[in-house]
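Figure 3 (text version): structure tokens given as input.
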């Protein structure tokens, strides 16, 4: 497991950029953390690494936003869904099969039963004074070590 930390939105965006550099542009990134943990801010950093020229905003009400950059960015927000069956009904499960770009999934715990083993899990913990800790692991690596 790798760990990163930040104490500002800019540092959180820097962590997002670093994740793309480390794990690549054809990857599923599953984001876990409470409200206001910085999930969308992290995706903004991923977008910067991909040279996306649009402003990244949370897709909470529409479930999915697509962005064009060096590689496509598919930003899913599953907060309003309750389980995997709703994800399948909405057709969002097809983004989890074979990523043709970066797939960032906020509230990935809602899709746990249908998530592929080939993915990067990012657990965000909120600390004191706006500190954020990002625990990054790849479930296909057995013990979770990246």
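Below: residues designed for each position.
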């Amino acid at each position: 497991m790798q760990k990163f930390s930040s104490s500002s939105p800019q540092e959180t965006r820097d962590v997002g950029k670093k994740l793309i550099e480390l794990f690549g542009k054809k990857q599923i990134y599953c984001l876990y953390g409470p409200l206001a943990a910085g999930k969308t801010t992290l995706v903004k950093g991923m977008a910067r690494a991909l040279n996306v020229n649009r402003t990244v905003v949370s897709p909470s009400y529409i479930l999915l936003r697509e962005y064009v950059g060096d590689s496509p960015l598919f930003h899913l927000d599953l907060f309003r869904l309750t389980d995997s069956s709703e994800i399948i009904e909405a057709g969002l499960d097809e983004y989890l099969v074979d990523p043709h770009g970066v797939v960032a999934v906020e509230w990935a715990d809602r899709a746990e039963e249908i998530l592929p083993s080939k993915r990067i899990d990012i657990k965000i913990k909120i600390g004191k004074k706006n500190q954020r800790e990002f625990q990054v692991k790849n479930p296909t690596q057995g013990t979770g070590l990246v």
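The chain has a mean pLDDT of 91.
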